[in-house]
Amino acid sequence: MTAPDTRVLLADDHALVRESFRALLEAEPGLRPVGEAGTGAEAVRLARVHRPDVVLMDVRMPDMDGIEATRRICADPETASAHVLILTTFDLDEYVYAALRAGAGGFLVKDSTAAELITAIRVVAAGEALLAPRITRRLIATFARQGPPAGPTTAALRGLTEREREVLTLIARGLSNTEIAESLYIALGTVKTHVGRLLSKLDARDRAQLVITAYEAGLVTPGG
Prior knowledge:
The structure is a single chain. The chain is of the alpha/beta class. The protein has two domains: 6-134, Response regulator (Rossmann fold); 147-216, Winged helix-like DNA-binding domain superfamily/Winged helix DNA-binding domain (Arc Repressor Mutant, subunit A, Orthogonal Bundle), CATH 1.10.10. 52% of the residues lie in helices and 13% in strands. It has eleven helices and six strands. Strands 2-1-3-4-5-6 form a six-stranded parallel β-sheet, sandwiched between helices. The longest helix has 14 residues, at 133-146. It is globular, with a radius of gyration of 17 Å. The relative contact order is 0.11. It comes from Amycolatopsis saalfeldensis. This is DNA-binding response regulator, NarL/FixJ family, contains REC and HTH domains.
């Protein structure tokens, strides 16, 4: 049986950008654009109408910015299954952090190649976290300046086993399940089990949220 197409909602305030993305997706097997939004408010409304698998979300839009639109889509039980991929020209720290906190599953800048964008959509649709390498470096640098906050997030890690902490640390460093398995000399299935337990114990919706938790708790530091 053929797998269903990944349904993608496009949200950007520039019509030409949306048209370019739509043409790119229509030419790609397994991906299908299902709607276009020119504002954050419209993106929220169309997410409820089309129930997309992925929302390709710009940050700066009229009425409501992409961060707030992401927050509303991820918090609404009717649309919470959608994975939001933030795509913007503004790779500023505050946008990256705010987007991930709002529930975004990935973040790319608009100078990414078409191939990188297609890969990002597929990765995010599968529930994996995705950050452009240079954005990951900037995010780490931000946490280095601010220092990890003490509080509930740190306390939540006390319920993790030592192996779960190791897996969480490697997730936060950007390793895939396969790379984690090779690093820890354990089976891929065992890694998947640990990831599932981490999502449950830390009440995280996806790997992006696990990354945020690891940094906020000080489990991962630059160069650590």
